[in-house]
Design goal:
The structure is a single chain. With about 350 residues, the protein is α+β, with helices and mostly antiparallel strands. The protein contains 11 helices and 9 strands. The protein has 3 domains: about 5-165, Orthogonal Bundle (Helix Hairpins); about 175-235, no CATH class; about 250-340, no CATH class. It has a 5-stranded antiparallel beta sheet with strand order 8-7-6-5-9, with no helix packed on it. A 4-stranded mixed beta sheet has the order 2-1-4-3. A hairpin with a 2-residue loop joins strand 1 and strand 2 (about 195-200). The longest helix has about 80 residues, at about 85-170. Bound molecules: zinc ion.
């Protein structure tokens, strides 16, 4: 891997981490608002209790004023008694006074009710205030934890930012510009090649492209997703040892050109699936199916080791070519496969 590409791989790790931290940091105000919102109902219970107490007090004042004006009216009635001329007027006056006294009693009754209710409301307010206090303490703890996490993220982001800038200084500007462009449009810019595939988009590389990526003389872009590709030999050794020792669980297929088969070589697909190894061969000249072997509890790499030894990889983008063309490969596919062979 050229040093610039190596740097871009690290840069991408740092940049992705930085982006993750920034997203996390941007979410903190929302988190805090959500935590605060937990207090809303506790606050409302306090406010409701206060409002009810206030309403009770104002009702009580109204009744008191009412009583005061009734008393004044009674005094006025009594003042009129000297000017009374007959028994009927006297009776009427007494009746007015009795009526006013009745109203006073009714208002006093109401005040008593309000006083009794007020005790209940005071208890309610005290309970609501205590609950709000407890919940506020809990919320403050949660907020402090969120802010502390934010501080840690901010410190990590600053560190990542510094590292990103340091790496960027050492990378060719043109390369850096395309890295930034791909990163912006695709989420990430550098992709590893594993098992002949671009791990970002799973596109199978043509043999020539694969060998260019391996040679790493220049930065090679994936034909499918446009990302910069790199190849680590140590990662690609691993898959072949697994294949050689165990039986593959998932279907795994590989198209190859086998020079020892057919009139002048054959296009052969090797399939490991559910413990069975299948080989299907088509003559490279005519495209005719010339051989099909299925071995139970076997893997191609072992059972067909002789055929695979001199074979070379082919790129086939259609997944089940051999099912579609059981008897003969069509000419356009033959052409495509032949083009992948070195010129004789
Ligand atoms: Zn790709």
């Amino acid at each position: 891997m050229p040093t610039d590409l190596e740097k871009l791989v690290e840069l991408q790790q740092v940049d992705l981490e930085l982006a993750r931290l920034n997203t996390q940091l941007a979410a903190i105000p929302k988190t805090i608002a959500r935590i605060d919102a937990q207090l809303a109902s506790a606050r409302k219970r306090v406010e409701d209790a206060r409002a009810a107490i206030k309403a009770g007090e104002s009702a009580k004042r109204q009744h008191e004023q009412e009583i005061q004006s009734l008393n004044e009216r009674i005094l006025k009635f009594r003042g009129q008694s000297s000017s009374i001329k007959n028994n009927e007027q006297y009776k009427a006056l007494l009746s007015e006074i009795a009526h006013a006294e009745g109203e006073i009693a009714a208002n006093e009754e109401k005040i008593l009710e309000l006083l009794m209710k007020s005790d209940g409301l005071q208890t309610q307010l005290a309970t609501a205030e205590a609950a709000l206090k407890t919940e506020t303490a809990e919320v403050e703890l949660q907020k402090a934890a969120a802010e502390k996490a934010g501080d840690a993220d901010r410190a990590a982001a600053a560190k990542a930012q510094a590292r990103s800038q340091a790496i960027r200084k050492g990378v060719d500007e043109t390369l850096l510009a395309s890295y930034d462009r791909i990163l912006k449009s695709r989420g990430y810019a550098v992709a590893e090649v594993l098992d002949h595939r671009c791990t970002a988009c799973q596109f199978m590389l043509r043999p020539q492209v694969l060998s260019n990526v391996r040679a790493a003389l220049e930065v090679v872009l994936c034909d499918s997703c446009g990302r910069m590709m790199y190849y680590l030999p140590e990662h690609n050794v691993k898959t072949s040892t697994i294949n050689a020792t165990g039986i593959a669980h998932q279907a795994e297929r590989e198209w190859m050109f086998v020079p020892s088969m057919g009139t002048s070589g054959a296009f052969v697909v090797f399939i490991n699936h559910k413990g069975n190894a299948t080989m299907k061969a088509y003559d490279a000249m005519t495209g005719e199916a010339i051989a099909r072997r299925v071995e139970k509890n076997a893997i191609c790499q072992k059972i067909f080791a002789d055929e695979i030894r001199d074979a070379r990889n082919l790129f086939v983008d259609e997944p089940n070519l051999e099912d579609k063309y059981k008897e003969k490969l069509p000419i356009e596919i033959l052409d495509d496969l032949r083009h992948q062979l070195p010129k004789a």
